[in-house]
Amino acid sequence: MVRLTLELIAKSRSHFQKRSGISFLEYLRTLTHLHFSGRNIEDIGDLSQCRNLTVLYLYDNQITHIRNLNFSSNLTHLFLQNNNIAHMDDLANLQKLSKLYLGGNEIAVVEGLEKLSELTELHLESQRLPPGQKLLFDPRSLLSLADSLCVLNINRNNIDDIGDLAALRRLEKLYAADNKLQNMEGLEDVFTRWPGLLEMDLSGNPVCKTPKYRDRLIVACKRLVVLDDRDINEITRRFLINWKASKEANKKKKNKQTHHDDDGTFRIFFLNK
């Protein structure tokens, strides 16, 4: 088993050997970035001497568990994509974490984020899930991220509903391509809860075949500038919003007229009696 340890760091040509003139322990105390991607690492050992670590690159390995990171209270970026992680453990102490990359793992439930009040980006794309299973979200984690999370990547996770994500009221970018979303009305309801949404990708979902799909989302998301990797023209947006307002006004006028006509018909019928 390949384990990330202080000994492995000491042997790494890309780390300690480049910092001659100081002791190994002194080097560990000054270490802020640790690069160990694509090394067939299966486990994270005791790195508690690296207390000033802010960025940890461990993507493209064979890691099965997130552990031994309790020491890293200064960590802001954690790259763990393309490993074999099934559970989101040992994250509670990473209270300065800003960006978390966990795409390409085996995570079935997004959880354990209740203490990460500074998390702005969460990347969970392409989880390797059993056939028919979809990525789920613990409501407690979503509520904890409501005032911080700005970017969410959930591409390719068999997701058929994002109603629970409405709690993420500060969301600015949503990447949810190649899922199973198909309820346009449900999506419109969620998007109205995200007033700051700027960029969204829903390509590859069944909902994209809904008539007027793009027009309806442009109207629902007032600040959206990119939809499905295509820029939104401001003139087009204004036209669609005005068109919808005019259509709703005409509908109300027609309903009001129908109501008056019904009352008149009733009165004439009553008098004839």
TrEMBL record:
Signal peptide range: none
Give the matching InterPro entries.
Answer: Leu-rich_rpt (IPR001611), LRR_dom_sf (IPR032675), SDS22/Internalin_LRR (IPR050836)
Q: Which UniProt keywords apply?
A: Leucine-rich repeat, Repeat
- Keyword Repeat assigned: yes
Q: Output this protein's name.
A: Protein phosphatase 1 regulatory subunit 42
Q: Which organism is it from?
A: Mola mola
* Organism phylogeny: Eukaryota, Metazoa, Chordata, Craniata, Vertebrata
